[in-house]
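Q: Structure tokens for this one, please.
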Amino acid sequence: MNAAAFPRRILLAVTGLTPQIVTETLFALAVARSDPWLPTEIRLITTAEGAERARLALLDPKAGQFHALCREYGLSGVAFPPENILAIRDAGGQPLADIRTPEDNTLAADALLAAVRELCADPDCALHVSIAGGRKTMGFFLGYALSLFGRPQDRLSHVLVNDPFESLPDFFYPPAEPRLLHDRNGRPVHTSDARVMLAEIPFVRLREGLPREALEHATPFASIVAAAQTAVDPPTLRIDLRARCIWCGDKKVDLPPALLAWYAWLAECRKTGQGEQGFVGVRGSTPNRLLEILQHIVGRHDSTLEEFRKRVADGLDAGLFQERRTRINRRLEAALSLAAGDYKVISRGPRNRVLYGLALPPERIETQP
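A: Here is the predicted structure, written as tokens:
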């Protein structure tokens, strides 16, 4: 897929205290390559100090290195206004000074994920993500976000610069007219010796395996990762009646006895093939096995058992099926978030003969007494 042909082309980068990576990456993409990729827009995500450094070093009207690079090499049409430099914010809405705590890491992950999700939602956009700058965790989170949401036209890279230019504060890109600079020890170096190279990084695209909600809503980073893991790992269900819970993969979900009995009954039907390929409905179903399972959970003399016995004295009705399905699925969503889909109670069949059950393959269901 030709990423250069998209009408909207965005270079997204993270930086810390070295805004040089923006101009170095732009130079590598638009000048040094035999097949130039010129972005229509640049976006930068950083910390409070990183944002200030980027504004002064890159976007100053007279001394800004971004403007200098565009003038020297005739790069036109690249939008990079100051508002495109986004500072990660803390819980109070203030820009983060740095990323030093687990809480800071969570904020950074969610901010980077939101930025990538938004850009990847535009089908007319090709995204090029650079992970060369900022703290290592920022680059990791940004690359991971692209793996979750990236499409065929999106790319991931790291810019490489040879010594001593990599650590030279005054070096932002090889100028069109080579000139003399001095390294940190005062030794002269000539920009004609500078080499700026782009290392494209292959990445696994997991987008098609994510639930639709993950693509459309502002879900936290940790929940998206859990959903992606579920897409990669085959789901398994273990029902533990003694502990009054179910295990969805490695996640424990507690259910009240009445709901646990209902879910265990549906799981048993699915595993043994009762009903129509493990799906059951009002027709042909009796409350007998449900009452046995509930009694096993709560005991013979528990009031829950007597209440349920009265409820189903005239048999199982459609309203009870739908009510239990709704309540169980809400519990699963609350506990598993986006990963709940594989474990939900689903329905199928015509309206006048709806059947309920679990979509999980029978071999992935285990029941413990």
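A few notes: The chain has two domains: 3-228, 235-368. The two ends are 54 Å apart (CA to CA).
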